[in-house]
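Reviewer 2 asked us to include a model.

Predict the structure of this chain.
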Amino acid sequence: MLTATRREWNELYTVFRLLADGEIACGTADGKASSRVLQIAAIEREEHDGRRSYMVDGNDIRVVGRDMDERYPREDFATVAGLILEALRGGGDEVEAPEGVEGFLDTLQILDFEAQTEDRTDFHIVFFDRNFPASGFRVYSRLCGMWPLLDGGRTANLKFEQTGVRFSQPAVNNINYTDRPDAVEEVARRMLYIESLGGVLKYSDVADKIFRSNLSMIDLHFPRMLAEMVRRLHIDNVSKVSDLVKLVEESNPLKIKEELVYKHGFYRYKMKEFLLALAFGMRPAKQYDGTPSAVEGFVMVDADGRLVCYHKSEREVFGDFLYNHTRLEKGLPEKDKYGCLERENGKYYLKLNLKVGFAKF
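Predicted model (structure tokens):
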């Protein structure tokens, strides 16, 4: 019996559902379908034998690739999409192919459940609407574990200098001690312990110089804003981006005028620009210069299998959606190397990790 992960099945479900429907609604800022519906002319996907086009042609899907030019009824794609969706509603990470699905995949000569691309796109969609040219899309779905928008890693660490009092080595050892090195709760415990002893954690720098440069493209002081958000994530256990930005507006770490904060929405604007940069290619360890990447939009799939899309041509809506539906997440301290006091050049620093994922939509 053919089996694959939920994530692998999800990409095939999305492609088959799009071909069966022949259209997709544009998403709104609150994650719902808008009244604007885009007609799909074709989906281009990287298969084992190269790029293949699935063209919507009336009641048929014409499949053209290397040594291949065939037609299949659109209703077959609808049937198989429905079967995959039903299977995905079950439990477990490994999902067996429903009856009839494996034969359909064999007929289409689909061997790769997830497209193997280097540009991070899952597929390209060709629309009839000229305002939406052929665009590379990524799929984010509630039907499986979702990739983070920014997967922390040690290159996404922010450094806080420990000031206020000078701790002895035994005191540092006591602060750092834990029998649960990968428990995220230990990070907040250490931070509160430091404060209880009179210490102060003051933002110092971005740990990685490339990520520092990338964040500076948003604003030279943007890392300080992010540092405050990550600090509040651990201390106050608030994770939703929009809620954290409200806290930042209240504390105003950049000490800017209130008119700029509330009337012009300075912090909100900077955060939206950062989220859009992540969507379009910014990564911690890769130099970012604002050049557009191959990813030009997202297809979002909700828990019921409904699809909406967001595209760079509707930047404001896309930015609002990301702002309203993302959250900061706590990575594993041992894996991402953060959350302990560490000595560097005679001073002690504590690193916090930046990871951005999706909240409910």
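The first strand starts at residue 3 and ends at 5. The first helix runs from residue 6 to 21. We have added this to the supplementary material.
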